[in-house]
């Protein structure tokens, strides 16, 4: 029976072949050949047909990782877009983001930060930052209470930086991590794209916030009653407008942010020196009263600011005035810089330095190259301590009152 079954199967197969026409047989052979070729095709040949020729090592995984990283960077605008309003008003900016995420129109929820699963989509976060906005903004409306708000301004910026990093890390944790990490190579240094983006975010916020702080400080110094309130209202209005632009188009908001950042970066050095000057002159006496050790010099030196350009130092540079270590009758002005070599200016031995007391700040007057120079320093030390320090530095302390004409006053505070 088994043999008969096999013979019948063979007979049916032969009959099927014999029953086909020559055209059908040719078609059958083509289909069979195509199937066999598909089964025995080289995988690398198929990849080359799609991607082009490959090198000897096959697919370059590093290039694929880099390309995937830049493709992921298409979400760059979602993180860089809101940085300018957050730098202008940190707490109010987070309040706006949370409010748009909760109650904004549907077209405003395309961003991951504003979407249904966004970290800021919480009524608790909205209420919390609304309260912080009120607490930090109300003191800015009057000149009496504004120093308190200015004192916590940088802390506000740091807090928002931490919040942004937490939001970014949360989004990265919730996103599947099968994609390769994109790396950026800058000379001998290399870092992940996420690390580079975090550094860029921090730098962006701090620079724009520093420029805003300076103009806000100038508004406080200007003796116009309602100028501080007007400046704060304009600041909040600009922050809200930029947030609406970000909700409508993150790409447009990123372009605006880059323009703000470039403008702030151009004037940052000029503003930073003057901000440090004003902050030192105003806060040093306050800190000396609140913290007595600050009113006692640790080393025989004075922190001074040159009123006009002096040697390689631009106006309002923060310098340290010290006596030379070789006990010669001359002094050195040094500028401390973190990443660059120190610059210094030597005052010749035959120069006479005089300390003159002032109401807001003290001054050191001397003549160099037939030009009258003035170094200013804060009222950090009382007269007795300052006299002892002057003796160690070899500088004469006089009781002459510093008098300036209108041009010199402009230089003093410009």
Task: Please explain how this structure is put together.
With 414 residues, this protein is an alpha+beta fold. It folds into two domains: 69-287, no CATH class; 297-413, PH-domain like. It is 57% helix and 12% strand. It has helices at residues 2-18, 22-40, 43-51, 61-72, 76-80, 83-88, 90-103, 123-137, 146-151, 153-174, 193-221, 227-248, 250-290, 383-393, 406-413; strands at residues 183-186, 189-192, 301-306, 318-323, 331-335, 343-347, 354-356, 362-368, 371-377, 396-398. The strands form two sheets. It has an eight-stranded mixed beta sheet. A two-stranded antiparallel ribbon has the order 1-2. Strand 1 and strand 2 (189-192) form a beta hairpin. Helix 7 packs across helix 12 and helix 11 (193-221) crosses helix 13 (250-290). The longest helix is centred in the middle third of the chain and has 41 residues, at 250-290. The radius of gyration is 36 Å and the shape is elongated. The chain starts with a helix and ends with a helix. Mean pLDDT is 76; it is low at 1-21, 23-41, 54-59 and 64-74.
Fold blueprint:
Blueprint: H1 2-18, H2 22-40, H3 43-51, H4 61-72, H5 76-80, H6 83-88, H7 90-103, H8 123-137, H9 146-151, H10 153-174, E1 183-186, E2 189-192, H11 193-221, H12 227-248, H13 250-290, E3 301-306, E4 318-323, E5 331-335, E6 343-347, E7 354-356, E8 362-368, E9 371-377, H14 383-393, E10 396-398, H15 406-413
